[in-house]
Amino acid sequence: MAKSKYEYVRTFEFEDRCLQNCWIVVRLDGRSFHRFTSSHKFEKPNDKRALELMNRSAAAVMEEFRDVSLAYGQSDEYSFILRKNTDLYNRRQSKIMSAINSIFSASYVYYWNTFFEDKKLLYPPSFDARIVLYPTDQNLRDYLSWRQADTHINNLYNTAFWGLISMKGLSNNEAEKVLSGTVSSEKNEILFKECGTNYNNELPIYRKGTVLVRKLVNLPPSKSKKHVICPLHVDIIGDSFWEEYNEILNLKDLILNKNFKPDDIFYLVKRS
Amino acid sequence: MAKSKYEYVRTFEFEDRCLQNCWIVVRLDGRSFHRFTSSHKFEKPNDKRALELMNRSAAAVMEEFRDVSLAYGQSDEYSFILRKNTDLYNRRQSKIMSAINSIFSASYVYYWNTFFEDKKLLYPPSFDARIVLYPTDQNLRDYLSWRQADTHINNLYNTAFWGLISMKGLSNNEAEKVLSGTVSSEKNEILFKECGTNYNNELPIYRKGTVLVRKLVNLPPSKSKKHVICPLHVDIIGDSFWEEYNEILNLKDLILNKNFKPDDIFYLVKRS
Amino acid sequence: MAKSKYEYVRTFEFEDRCLQNCWIVVRLDGRSFHRFTSSHKFEKPNDKRALELMNRSAAAVMEEFRDVSLAYGQSDEYSFILRKNTDLYNRRQSKIMSAINSIFSASYVYYWNTFFEDKKLLYPPSFDARIVLYPTDQNLRDYLSWRQADTHINNLYNTAFWGLISMKGLSNNEAEKVLSGTVSSEKNEILFKECGTNYNNELPIYRKGTVLVRKLVNLPPSKSKKHVICPLHVDIIGDSFWEEYNEILNLKDLILNKNFKPDDIFYLVKRS
Amino acid sequence: MAKSKYEYVRTFEFEDRCLQNCWIVVRLDGRSFHRFTSSHKFEKPNDKRALELMNRSAAAVMEEFRDVSLAYGQSDEYSFILRKNTDLYNRRQSKIMSAINSIFSASYVYYWNTFFEDKKLLYPPSFDARIVLYPTDQNLRDYLSWRQADTHINNLYNTAFWGLISMKGLSNNEAEKVLSGTVSSEKNEILFKECGTNYNNELPIYRKGTVLVRKLVNLPPSKSKKHVICPLHVDIIGDSFWEEYNEILNLKDLILNKNFKPDDIFYLVKRS
Predict the structure, then answer these.
(1) Which residue(s) pair with B214 in the sheet?
(2) Record-annotated residues binding GTP (chains A, B, C, D) (predicted)?
(3) Rounded CA gap, B266 and B227, in Å?
(4) How far is CA B206 from CA B44, B45, B148, B152, in A?
């Protein structure tokens, strides 16, 4: 079609390809979620439905992009890991980052009613995104360990903080003062003694966050192989997760997963 | 709060600040909108409600970011212009681009029902984003002229193409053949002779796209000054638009706009 | 010619083009020149021959690259200004920066003997380089003003410092203490009263640094037009320099310069 | 010291840090060396003194930067490998690249007379530079294999080409035609049959290029440990080189090298 004399402005665009052979991580973070969670009266310290909505939105990203081999979420953030050999959008940073962020953001609004049937969405929330490259498998695992360790640190604090408020009737300031300077074992102790809560009995989704993995499974009744995305709430810092899902770091194709129980929660990838 | 030994992975993040004293343009494009528009049976060649939904979503971006001084949209794309002296997010590209894209994407789903009361959103659409810098006012105007010239070129073609199909009963292939190699004046001629359509009578929103500008106005009954965002469907290639809205290129504050009629369509900026 | 299977490593190279329509500045700085100047017993506070060697090396850069329209040097640094519309090396940063730096560094060693006939070069000196973009003429002028203001600030201080040492017999520490916290007028006063030196009588090359400009001139006896590079020691902060050499900011071709006196110092561009 | 109002222009500089945990390769290439070699009548197809001058200049770079753990050169190009964990200049690309290029360029001129006692340097040569990142050891080895395979391909061709000209009296065009489309074994055959040359008897420096490695050695008579840089002309594509110099990929300190014979050519690192 005809071109205008203004076309020259395209030459101002710049290339922003990710370095080859590096893991690509896209992390989304809720923008102004302090205000969003209080406007929508999310439960404290964790709102299970809100976390499940995050997971559903993240699954929508994985349904769209096969090269996102794993995702990890906690609170109002989600990290997406692209295979180090991906050629998605010629590895252009802005394309990869913006597409993932847009699918996630639109899905969060789209699926809101599925998880909050009784609660109206008052305004559209939003997320910002960043992209980071990790050259080695160890760097990637350390990135994910960093996020999961962060989940633990924040959730233990928040559980103790809200426990002191809701069960002991402390004010925010008083709760803050009690916890100030305490180490993990002390927070566990406070939770147990003051609130009667054994932290280890808290829901895994709160303590561990959610890791989304891909599985190839038999889904009754059809018995044909299906590609699904499963939310797990397990440790990803130690080796055992990485041994069980060794295809991720090894860049291998999925093989039939025989441990899959169709009663598990999962998201079916339609266009597999 | 405590930090883990994995914290070092943060050093892999990189700085991506926009060069100072350049206009920053963020352009969003609908991803796979061919499929999206046909799934949702958008009207051809233009769906007025869909365009208004785009405009509403873009206004949501402008409500959030004061430094977006103008936005221009057509079809499934929208460009946002940030003041050349903006310090939003320290001019970090990924932050600026992802926040704008996320607000727009979430708003598109959120406001869907406002514009398509009778039509269910079948799945969440998404947009990709890019960021481009323009050093001079002329470069910026040429960018916007490029997009509006593109609107004209595409819309004239599409209007003639769908006119030949709907009014003359041609097949897609036949219509394509008739228009192949024609210049603008010939397409105008075909439209007029074959379809009885005077292209200049087509709606300005189709022919010119939409430019969103900010205004400071008196809104009855309160008479207090309010900050609003107004959709215009005017030429932005010539000088007159830029003279009327000279505060944009001059980086000036808004002054009270006395030509504003409260019957105009506008979006009220709540937190002005 | 044949290619090896290792060729894929080329895909790891990245594009680093300078934004269009911006002035490109490459600034070189002497590496470890404190050690270099003391090893080679440069005169304090200024060594005229060393400055002339810097100028000669910078002229070599301008002889090679027509799009370097101006250069400014002081002490052990030199800035090269490339026309904002240059297409040199497709505006690739690393190519532009490294070629300029290499020509300058090699020339500095090559021309050493021309300026220091009696002094042996003990080891090869080196320079680092950076590249900076300036979108507007005002930004560019401010950059050059910054460097010339720096020349003034440093040279006034150094002249007073070394004057107190050489003429008044102060130690380094004593001289430092005398000058500590003084403003320009006070340093001028100290120089005049203590050392009998009127700072304004210092050589312009010391007070103003050197700006290299291009001229098109008649060189006797041939009378044919020649392209030369002339070192000036003039103010470049005010407007008059930019009016006289208006072709620089206006991106114009050189016109015959009738004020040129063949007795002036100049470098002939051979391949004009 | 005082600052001027123009200081703001510094904010236009941008950060250009190399991604952490990647091998950093800086490759220099002679600019217009076709002209340079013919002006200086370098021997064809290889000029041994010119190669030794390249090696000497590269050694100067390694003397300066401890984190350059290996360098590889051929013809008019040289690659410098920085340890993947280097923190040199905070991994800033422009600093690393420009410093290496400047030292090399200045050294080439400085040491010219050492290698070409009877030949005057007619003008200063120059080199351009680029920087490339390699995330894994394998990528790095493949990069070096690429360069050494290139050495082989070029040198075999050039040896045959100049052999046909100097020994068989062919013209450039005729020699080119004879070699056109031949594979390696055919070029070997032509060399042997037509020129009586067994390619494998050509000097290793021509066939393999030069790899510069660091060694810690006993240098008589002092017997104290000295840090030296040794030029080798060996295969670096296979594993044996990397096993012998395993400290390079393993980022280990040097241990005393007992195979070193002081008669070998080496460059002593003074400031070890």
Answers:
(1) B229
(2) 29-34, 75-76
(3) 10
(4) 11, 9, 11, 8
Give the domain ranges of chain B. Answer: 15-147+207-271, 148-205
C49 annotated among ligand-binding-site residues: no
> Can you tell me the distance from the alpha carbon of A120 to that of B175, in angstroms, rounded to the nearest whole number?
47
What interface predicted TM-score (ipTM) does this complex get?
A: 0.96
- Chain A contact set for C21 (CB, 8 A): 12
pLDDT digits (tens, 9 = 90+) for A215-248: 999 887 777 889 999 999 999 999 999 999 999 9
Cβ neighbours, 10 Å, residue B126: 28
| Parallel, antiparallel or unpaired: strands B77-82 and B225-232 | unpaired
A136 with D133: Cβ contact below 8 A: no
Closest approach of B137 to chain C, Cα-based (Å): 10
Q: Residue A272's pLDDT band (boundaries 50, 70, 90)?
A: very low
Cis peptide before A221 (omega within 30 of 0): yes
User: From CA D102, how far away is CA C33, in angstroms rounded?
Assistant: 14
Residue B249 or D268, more confident: B249
Q: Looking at CA atoms only, how far is residue C119 from chain A in angstroms?
A: 48
Query: What CATH number matches the domain at C15-147+207-271, 1.10.340.30, 3.30.70.3000, 2.40.160.20, 3.40.50.150?
Result: 3.30.70.3000
Phi, psi of C123 (to 5 degrees): -160, 160
Beta bridge partners of C213: C70, C230
Task: Check the annotation: does B209 bind a ligand.
Answer: no
CB-based contact B19 C21, cutoff 8 Å:
no
Nearest to B106 among A14, A109, A128 (CB): A109
**For residue A124, how many other CB atoms are within 10 A of its CB?**
23
Touching subunits for chain B (3+ Cβ pairs under 8 A): A, C, D
Cis amide linkage into residue C262, ω under 30° from 0: no
Q: A116: annotated binding-site residue?
A: no
- Other beta carbons within 10 angstroms of residue C32's beta carbon come to 12
Low-confidence ranges of chain B (pLDDT < 70): 1-2, 271-272
Q: How far is D63 from chain A (nearest CA, A)?
A: 29
Query: Between vectors from CA C258 to CA C255 and to CA C261, what angle results, nearest 5°?
Result: 125
* Closest CB to B20 among D12, D19, D21: D12
Distance CA D189, CA D199 (A): 9
For A261, counting Cβ atoms within 10 Å of its Cβ (0-12 exposed, 13-18 middle, 19+ buried), the class is exposed
Residue D147 has pLDDT above 80, yes or no: yes
Please give, rounded to a whole number of angstroms, the shortest distance from the CA of D64 to a CA of chain A.
28
What three-state secondary structure class fits D154?
helix
- For A197, the token pair is 């809560």
Residues from A contacting C (CB-CB < 8 Å) are: 11-12, 14-15, 17, 19-21
A166 within 8 A of A156, measured Cβ to Cβ: no
Q: Known binder of ligand: residue C65?
A: no
The pair phi, psi for residue D77, each rounded to 5°, is -125, 155
Which stretch of DSSP H or E encloses residue B109?
A: helix B93-110
> Residue A64 and residue A99: Cα distance in Å, rounded?
10
Nearest-by-Cβ selection for C12 from A14, A15, A20: A20
Q: Which of B171, B217, B194, B204 is nearest to B55 (CA)?
A: B204
- Mark yes or no for CB contact C99/D31 under 8 Å: yes
Residue whose pair of structure tokens reads 């924040």 in the numeric block: A154
Could you tell me the end-to-end alpha-carbon distance of chain C, in angstroms, rounded to an integer?
36
Could you give the CA distance from residue D66 to residue D70 in angstroms, rounded to a whole number? 10
